[in-house]
What does this fold into?
Amino acid sequence: MQFIFLLCVKKDSQEDLQEMYEMLGEIIDNSTMVKRLIQARNYKEFVGILQ
It folds into this structure.
C-alpha cells in the first residue's frame, strides 16, 4: 500500500458528500494522478496536484 486517504466527517453531518465521493473515485481510477500524489514531497505540491 502506497497511498492512504483519510477522511474526517462529523457524526450526523447533513452535508452532501456525494461530490467528494465522486472526486475521490476519479482520483483512485487515475493511476497517473495517484503516482504523482505518492511522489509529492510536501503539502503544497500534493494540493497542487489535486487542483
